[in-house]
Amino acid sequence: xxxxxxxATTAVPDHLRGALSRWTSEVVPGIFVGSVSARVxxxxxxxxxxxxxxxxxxxxxxxxxxQGYAIRTAGTRRRVPADFDGLTLIRxxxxxxxxxxxxxx
Length: 105
Description:
Layout: E1 3-10, H1 14-23, E2 25-28, E3 31-36, H2 38-51, E4 56-62, E5 69-75, E6 79-84, E7 87-92
Antiparallel strand pairs: 1-3, 1-4, 2-3, 4-5, 6-7
């Protein structure tokens, strides 16, 4: 039975965006919404995880949980889902430190 999914992407290759748009609608740049079977959803997510490289992606889909949905992530990002007594919360990680250029003395 088809169910709705949302995939949000950041800095992913164009070929991945094309693959996602075959099954979903890109409602705004990087946000894909569709209604697909669990099998297609899992195959799309596998394609995302294999192609994300330096970008990031988040999948939200219905699931039999207290919240009624599940979250999957791939790539690098500051927001990381964390399980807290059966609820998925979003944990923020520290921003990457930028090394300062030192001038020769």
